[in-house]
Amino acid sequence: MLLYRELDQMETHHQILDFQKRLLDRFGEMPQEAIDLCGIIRLRQLGKESGVERLILKQGQMRLVFVSNTDSAFYQSPVFDRIISFFSVNSVRCQLREKNNQRSMIVNDINTVSDALQILEAINS
After folding, report:
1. Three-class secondary structure of residue 52 per DSSP
2. Residue 107: exposed, middle, or buried by beta-carbon count in 10 A (0-12, 13-18, 19+)?
3. Quick check: helix, strand or coil at residue 51?
4. What tens digit of pLDDT does each residue of 72-121 get?
């Protein structure tokens, strides 16, 4: 349980990598579930860097829910510009939505945590 708490409080990718190295040294090869758990923490970090209030992985989709205040500076930021650029290049697999003043982007064909990480890393690069 202490390991879960430690992982949950990590704020940088470097901290996650160090954590994974310590687990490898202590327990040997990590099972896929442990790798995915570390990936989920990284997803949370990348989502926060991307201005995402909520990130939902469900049924082969990733839903990125953006800042609800439509007057927010986020919508004028370089980060949001990168999101729109990603959408433009990948419009076949993405959908932009607005419902009840809540803006989101859905990305299809996300079957693993690794798939979701690749998308957010592409947006943040």
Report:
1. strand
2. buried
3. coil
4. 899 999 999 999 999 999 999 999 999 888 899 999 999 999 999 999 99
CB under 8 Å to 24, separation ≥6 — which residues? 30
pTM of the model: 0.82
| CB neighbour class for 69 (10 Å; exposed up to 12, middle 13-18, buried from 19) | exposed
Per DSSP, helices labelled H in the chain are 2-8, 13-27, 32-49, 78-89, 113-124
Looking only at the bridges linking them, the beta strands covering 94-99 and 61-66 are unpaired
What is the end-to-end Cα distance of the chain in Å, rounded? 34
Indicate the residue type of 48.
Answer: K
Q: Which residue type, as a one-letter code, is found at position 64?
A: L
Q: Say if residues 87 and 94 touch (Cβ distance below 8 Å).
A: yes
